[in-house]
Amino acid sequence: MTIALDRPAASRPRRGSATMKFIGRLFREKPLGAAGAVIFLVFLFCGLFADVLAPYGYNQISPINRLKPPSWQFLFGTDNLGRDVFSRCLYGAQLSVIIGFCAAGLATIVSVVIGVVSGYIGGRFDMIVQRMVDAWMSFPDLIVLIVVVSVVGPGLLPIILVLGLLLGIGGSRIIRGATISVRENMYVTATQSMGASTFRILFRHILPNVMAPVIILFTTRVGFVILAESGLSFLGLGVPPPAPTWGGMLSGSGRTYMLQGPWLALAPGLCLTFVVYATNVFGDALRDLLDPRMRGTR
Amino acid sequence: MSHAEPVTTGAPLLRVSDLKVHFPIHDGVLIRRRSGSVKAVDGVSFEVRKGETLGLVGESGCGKSTTGMAILRMTPLTGGRIEFEGQDISGLGARKMRPLRQRLQMVYQDPYGSLNPRMKVGDIVGEPLVIHGVTGTQDAYRARIQELLRLVGLRPDMAERYPHEFSGGQRQRISIARAVALNPSLVLCDEPVSALDVSIQAQVVNLFQELQERLGLSYLFIAHDLAVVRHVSHRIAVMYLGRIVEIAPRDMLYREPLHPYTRGLLAAVPLPDPLAERTRVHEEITGEPPSVVNPPSGCHFHPRCPMAMPICAQRAPELTAIGNARSVACHLHGAAPALDGQAAA
Amino acid sequence: MHSPVLEVKNLAVEFGSGAGRVRAVDDVSFDVRPGETLAIVGESGSGKSVTALSLLRLVPTPPGRICAGEILFHGEDLLKASEASIRSIRGNRIAMIFQEPMSSLNPALTVGLQIAEPLQLHGKLTWAKAFERARELLGKVRIPDAARRVNAHPHQFSGGMRQRAMIAMALACKPNLIIADEPTTALDVTVQAQILSLLKNLTKETNAALILITHDLGVVARYADRVCVMYAGRVVESGSAQDIYANPQHPYTLGLMASIPRLDQEAGQRLTPIDGQPPDLAALPKGCAFEPRCRFAMARCRRERPALESQGGRHYRACFADVSC
């Protein structure tokens, strides 16, 4: 209710009902997508309230309970230091979901801005932008990461920024391609010939029609970023331990104690799978629901 | 006779003189050099009067669509002058051009590509009003959209639907409603019925004529189908490889075509009557339209022309008035061909 | 007279399955004799192209499926033929020409090679002989400078020349039947006239039968001997071209004739369109599919589907109404 303060009072209930209608359609027409949304919300909730929900601290070491298999006391078992894996997964949800969504979101925004502008304007501008994208992409990602992290030090923000930029610039290619093919449509020419502003064409005609690749770009990036962060942790460039991330748990103790305590890898692995799967099915559902041509189809 | 001669008083609504649109061809991989140009439109002149339909016919690649895009100022001009409602628009920038776009609209060929699939029909039809800030109140805006839909033979409740729910003919009606939303004086129609089924074409053709009578519209009707063009046009210009070869009132052109190309074009159209076809002499034009990149010298048509003379390969004929209504660009007609070596005017 | 080259009986083709099943071709019968040109006329969704494809069992399966009927080629049912024997007929005894000449030719191979291939395959010629014949054929379809052009690639040909090359390829094995699906729709009108005359003359010369699929009533009038008019997957009228044009008996045919602007009539009169929208194959009415748009429609048309009945001689129509008034 806070977002629509400057709107005339009459249009507020309509807006609310449109959102409700959309949610209604999501559950009716795309039950799988709705399940994805629910799973995702559950993880987000767990992450946000990890402090309250977690039975133990994420770094609460208890040497007596080393490598205990899952039980009622330790739902997902314990790790090599006797820390509760369930609690760590909850706290991990906080970090991983934040990193995943922020970095993927940033990447998508960067991709859309570069891709749509470069693709729509075209010509020499497009050529110059694309050569710059080429130059950036030919630079090994790892070097950029190491340089940035060694300058500003490891932490959440640099990781999000660097991963977001790296993936965003690469992904702009896909959006640019989609933009170029949309731009060729006669309705864009028609709107231009009516005297519409570039702003209007971009937001009313180009952007809604490149939503499908945008959504797919975002959903595939989420999983990628969460895993990429684990790679960084492995190199000591990720979120520094003992802060738990799913990627860190997988690649750290999870791998070392794979045989003695398979739950160490299984628990964060399953969490990761669920979140990635949930975002993917929800993304697909969103894509179809936003496309008027798919109305009434499953 | 419902489709009478238009009232042709005053200055022409649109006057195109010596319009040229050349597209550069680039060469080279690293350093792009301009190695030549495609003369898509090369010195085209014509007028469209108020309430009149000028048909622009020609085969693919003759530059008829480019001419339309040039008049809309959607493609850069190489030369020439376009006057619309008495104002020279050939040099206008985007901002100065904007208010004029209300009076100058276009209907496109592809009924599927010309409507944004993500917008509701009502929003599509109302978009020109929004762009030019003339929506008025919510109620007035909605009423105008419904009026427009009714005008083109659609139901007002269709405003809430999306384009994919409509057939090709209905989509073309939506396109037309959008084009007339701002009460334009000139509508450019680029092959508006060629993508439609035969039984639907007549509906849309009739709609164009009805709207012309009711709203006093002028059309520049660009098409390749000679029968359709004859049906809707008052005057017709025939284009070949970027130039107009003949321009004449409808009946004059179809009864007595002067240019050999016009003659061949008309002879190539099969009549829907087997008996007439059995007895008709089929004088076919041989060969195919040459490439625009490398057009023949002199008169572009001379390699295919059954009546070509030596002069035709050397000099391009000027569009010359024959009588007071028609013009033709052919060495067979008009002034005696000038001697070789004399500078072309 | 001659026995028919091809006889199609009660052909039906369906697309999709379950609730989304659509009958694209329904109970279609026709035949074509040597040296004869049969035009199948219809608009989009009339089933004319699907009919053409199903004659050589080229309907993509799934989603398509030929679900009933017989296709008798010289008395042999092609629907019962083995995959090997239908392959030996395709391109050899029945040839097909498509609308889009660019995508019908392989851009990576020379035109000569593509014409020679069926000759070598079906005609059991050596490559050298097949190539020599390809050169002859290109000359026959009046491609200028055929001896040199035989080594050109398709992109070096214009649209009209590509279609000429397709005709050369179709004629290579001296087929008994040529099926041309909208062969000139992508071409300019002056080129269209050249191509169709060429096709017509060459089929006359070899006494092959020609099935011409088109939507252009002018093309039909100029080139066809007999006509099948299709609407919503069914034949609604068939007969000789003269009969169909001089004395159309189905309201749809009548409507089509009245709705096209004609060069041989006074200009400027309002056209008489067929009202309504093209049929939705997924939601066809129980009765006659044309009934919603028909100005002769009666109560009976909504209940029953009219069958194709003779109007005397070989003129057939599927309609209950009396259209003579």
Automatic annotation (TrEMBL), chain B:
Primary localisation category: membrane
Keywords from the UniProt entry: ATP-binding, Nucleotide-binding, Transport
Q: How does it sit in the membrane?
A: Peripheral membrane protein
Q: Which InterPro entries match?
A: AAA+_ATPase, ABC_transp_ATP-bind, ABC_transporter-like_ATP-bd, ABC_transporter-like_CS, Oligopep_ABC_C, P-loop_NTPase
Q: Which CDD domains match?
A: ABC_NikE_OppD_transporters (cd03257)
**Is Calcium found in the keyword set?**
no
One Pfam family hit: ABC_tran
Q: Which NCBIfam families match?
A: oligo_HPY
User: What is the protein named?
Assistant: ABC transporter ATP-binding protein
* Species the sequence originates in: Camelimonas fluminis
